[in-house]
Amino acid sequence: MTATDQPSGLRARADRAARGGEVIPLRQATRTWFAISWQTFGGPAGQIAVMQRALVEDKRWIGQQRFNHALSYCMLLPGPEAQQLAIYTGWLLNGTRGGLIAGGLFVLPGVLALLALSALYVAFGSTAAVTGVFAGLAPAVVAIVVQAVSRVARRSLTHPLLIALAAASFAALALFSVPFPAVIAAAALAGWLIGRFKPETLKPSGGHGAGDGPAPLIPDDALHHEQPSRRRTWRILALGLLLWAVPVVAVAALTGAGSVFTTQGVFFSGTALVTFGGAYAVLAYVAQQAVQTYGWLSPKEMVSGLALAETTPGPLIMVVQFVAFLGAYRDPGALDPWAAALLGALLTTWVTFVPCFLFIFLGAPYIERLRGNRRVSAALTGITAAVVGVIANLALYFAEHALFTDVDEKALGPVTLALPDLATLRPTALAITVIAALLVFTFRWSVLRTLGVCAALGLGAALVGLPGI
């Protein structure tokens, strides 16, 4: 069915959308986004699948190609692509209000859940039961991250040049300690060069059809009513930067430029700009800085934080909230430790997610008029290939610290190797890792189900006093 074949009611709503009206009532959209927000477990692939099923297949609010086009832009941006896709789609359906509601609801359940879990971790993390639960979760995270490497590699590394780019990214991070932003920038340049001189290397991603049934309310070939303009761009940029910066400036004025809150606000504002390829891609950089440079938490606690974030709805990058919670709790300054932890966690959440809204509201009107741009696709392909190497480096980092008690760094010329002490291997952690790998690779269990089993195994091992917890 084409757009002209739609029933008169659907055509009328589409016409109102083109003139600036809402495609569907905002209240109805809000209820839908609220329902979606509680189903966003399992990482970006699962979150995107939930939106695909609800918005494209069930409700027929948006066409498949339009959905894929929005997703391609979000994957190119730093930040959680699933949340940005929610903002983009909410903007398509209900304008700026729709984007704010969709993006806000997408992260709200995860923020609340992780705040509660972080408080429980700080309050009871030293007890045998809680220690056992997290000892079971940490090995499971190793298997889950390895699965992420496998999935991204199968989808992205379609040519030997892309495999070489992924390997080079892994080596740059694991052996030469190249800064993460430099790796991403080099990958984007490499992708652009490959697209220019070896275009056959890059396989275009074909969009899926919308399937049978009525035409979507927003057809694939329709233009959004909100036209890009210089005035609109500068207005959104000024307002977005103001909202992003004011809390950090206020915290610096009230607590000092050297306080943990100011440091966290500035640091996580920076990471929000380099979180290309999803949370897994930047977590190695965050872990390195948070553990080694700032000392906010230990490597084992970083793995525990990721396990907590895996069990909550919303983007996995929410783990930075856990990092900030622990860091501020342990260095509260003049504040009560619990108040400091809450302030640090909320400030970090704010500076992490406000840029997502800014990127979408700035770029979406232009992207709506950009179809199949080969240069953008080539740079994205390079970044995606490099992300495989980045996630592999993260898997190595987590495996070393989850399975061994001691890991020492040794410099061999320009190469820095992190070598675990084999005598400190945790046998129980190794056994749980093997079980987790079987569950996710052989039995194809979900992330949440796997984490639940491994948490129970860790708890049981702690209660019976098994070694290597």
Main attributes of the structure:
single chain; 469 residues; mainly alpha
In short:
By secondary structure, the chain is mainly alpha-helical. The protein has 17 helices and two strands. The chain crosses the membrane at residues 100-122, 129-149, 161-194, 236-261, 267-286, 306-326, 338-364, 376-399, 424-443, 450-468.
Task: Outline the low-pLDDT stretches.
Answer: 1-8, 204-211
**Strand runs, count:** 2
C-alpha-based Rg, rounded: 23 Å
For the largest beta sheet, what order do the strands appear in spatially?
1-2
* Average pLDDT: 84
Helix content: over 70%
- Give the distance, in angstroms, between the N- and C-terminal Cα atoms: 59 Å
Q: Care to describe what's here?
A:
The chain is an all-alpha fold and 469 residues long. It has one domain. It is 71% helix and 3% strand. The chain has a two-stranded antiparallel sheet with strand order 1-2. Strand 1 and strand 2 form a beta hairpin. Helix 5 packs antiparallel against helix 14, helix 6 packs across helix 12 and helix 6 packs antiparallel against helix 17. The longest helix has 44 residues. It is globular. The protein starts with 7 loop residues before the first helix and ends in a 5-residue tail after the last helix.
Question: What's the helix and strand layout?
Answer:
Blueprint (H helix, E strand, L loop, with lengths): L7 H11 L7 H12 L5 H16 L5 H13 L4 H44 L3 H29 L3 H15 L5 H18 L32 H26 L4 H13 L6 H15 L5 H12 L8 H12 L6 H31 L6 H30 L3 E6 L2 E6 L6 H16 L4 H18 L5
Antiparallel strand pairs: 1-2
Helix pairs in contact: 2-5, 3-5, 4-5, 5-13, 5-14, 6-12, 6-15, 6-16, 6-17, 7-8, 7-15, 8-15, 9-10, 9-14, 10-13, 10-14, 11-15, 12-13, 13-14, 16-17
Keywords: Cell membrane, Membrane, Transmembrane, Transmembrane helix
Protein name: Chromate transporter
Subcellular location: Cell membrane
